[in-house]
Amino acid sequence: MLALFLRDIRLNIRAGGGALTGVIFFLAVIATIPFGVGPDLRLLARIGPAILWIGALLSCLLGLDRLFQADREDGSLDLLVLGNDRHMLALTVLTKCLAHWAGSVLPLVIAAPLLGLFMNMEPLAIGATALTLLVGTPAITFIGAAGAAVAVALPRGGLLISVLVLPLTIPVLIFGVSASYGATANPDPFLQPFLILAALTLFLAVLGPVSAALALRHGTD
Amino acid sequence: MRLIAENLGGERGGDTVFSDIGFALQDGQALVVTGPNGSGKSTLLRVIAGLLPVAEGSVRIEGGGEAFPSIASACHYLGHHNAMKTALSVAENLRFWRDFNGTGHVGVEAALDMVGLGSIGHLPFGYLSTGQRRRAAIAKLLVSHRPLWLLDEPTAGLDKASEGRFAALMTRHCGAGGMIVAATHLPLGLDGAKELRMGG
User: Fold this and answer.
1) Do B88 and A7 lie within an 8 Å CB cutoff?
2) A112, A198, B118, B131 — which has fewest CB within 10 A?
3) What CATH number is associated with residue B21?
């Protein structure tokens, strides 16, 4: 499993892996918002956490279609499925998800504080948003894995995956944003939505890989 | 260990590709599957491996013990694709598959030497020619031990010398008690292999 994790990380970093495309897309989305919204600094600070979350969510969806498709094209996926007796396929998928998250999504979380400055956010709000992103984005990857597994045989499945996955990520977005606001706006609670966000991630860490494994097992042809 | 298929049938997209295939392989035996294009050779191999559902009949492995309870766990499947990443070096690819598949057998360097790629393990897989890629994929069969090899057109793209080397590797595998099921158009140079003709 460690070998698979390291291989996927390595592929992500090497040429053509697309580790940086997500970050650049994230940067592009966030950088255009102040131009669109106008120079009202207080408004920017208020919508900042929500915009960061939406930007991160969309950037997460960007690279998901390659999660299994690259392995399918070169035949690796067959061998990963055949390895089911030694490494349960759901665990293989979980490992691939974690590698994808560490390679493509973690850079977004690291870039988020910097982009928060663009939105004139306070340090506390920036910290809270980065923390909720750190806890919440794995959930998006896990749901995305199920979508990617369903669409693995489709040559241009990227958009389909986004459409399939987006409705399911809405709860993650809602609790992520409300926890970020809870840290700064006084009457709103921080801990409750944050804990629900963490629970969502843990829940989807099981459900996503298991359903993705099921789809992959029946998708071999 | 025995591989037994009885009345085996396979289908693709709802159409029956072949039916009523039966064979039994013992330790050290090889089966060469021949037949025209579209007669279901590749489908048969994928059904045996368990990548496609069995439409009728059964295929099973006996005497695999705890290490190889099912065909999937006992087989190396070499399909049309080489299952190697072009961005990684040949040695990195092999090292990954050895670690993932477990039950290490021949070392990576030694396996590359055995297929005649000893000097280019450091090159990215994407830089290799078709024949060299196939040889690297064959080296993948050597780095972890599996008693059953399922080979789909294993010699596609290989030159004469490599074909000979691969025949020797297959003979050695059978000599050590392994089993081979190979779908091919070209003679593989396997002495004493059973033959299964498909389609007509």
Assistant:
1) yes
2) B118
3) 3.40.50.300
